[in-house]
Amino acid sequence: MKYLDHLIKYSRARPDKPWKILLLDGHESHVYKPFQLKASEHNIKLFWFPSYLTHVLQPLDVGIFRPWKHYHKIAIHTALRSLDFEYTITSFFRDLTLIRTQTMQKYTIKNAFESSGIWPISYKAGIKKMRSYGKKKRSIEEVKVEESLDLPPLLPTRPDEVWNTAATLRALADRDPTTFSENSKETWIVIVKKVDI
Question: Are 30 and 46 in contact (CB under 8 A)?
């Protein structure tokens, strides 16, 4: 109910205003009668996604979560490259504004609704998405046949890769540990002790 109160307040939903639509999954709290009545009183039409199809029809699942995961992964990799070896909840909140800004672009949100077939309304988009999940999976026998193909052996590790790794470790050992966070400093000390450069 608190969510509905929040929605009513910030969308300015009232009986004298135009109708709004609220897309819902089949969670039991959304079937709660007082929730439905309050929404109806404020000109909010509730629309439930069919069971087990939110991954196909819900705009967040279809078009928002993938870019969100992408930008979150970039934030983690950036932290690791900065030698922040432990990505904690504090690190996440530090990066949250950037992740949200990069993900919640106008075109991303529009494409999410379009890809799910919500707007413009298109049953074909939903059916196309459902069919993509229904594609035949390979059997164990098919995988075994693929694995038994005669492939040439892999070349040995190239010396320049070894040299690059050693150079990276040397650069890491030369860094000033006082600029690191406590967790990163401890990890740095352990790595430098273990690796003879």
Answer: yes
* pLDDT tens-place string over residues 105-156: 999 999 999 988 888 888 888 888 877 776 667 677 776 666 666 666 655 5
CA separation (Å) from 189 to 99, 177, 179, 192?
A: 31, 8, 13, 5
Q: Over the stretch 54-112, which tens digit does the pLDDT of each residue have? A: 888 888 888 999 999 999 999 999 998 888 888 899 999 999 999 999 999 999 999 99
Q: Are 29 and 2 in contact (CB under 8 A)?
A: no
Helix (H, G, I), strand (E, B) or coil at 18: coil
With tokens 């950037």, the residue in question is 98
d(CA 166, CA 184): 20
In this structure, which amino acid lies at residue 125? A
Give me the sign of the Cα torsion angle 135, 141, 144, 148.
negative
Cα separation of the two ends of the chain: 61
DSSP state for residue 61 in the 8-state scheme? I
Q: What is the signed CA dihedral for 183, 189, 194, 195, rounded to 10 degrees?
A: 110
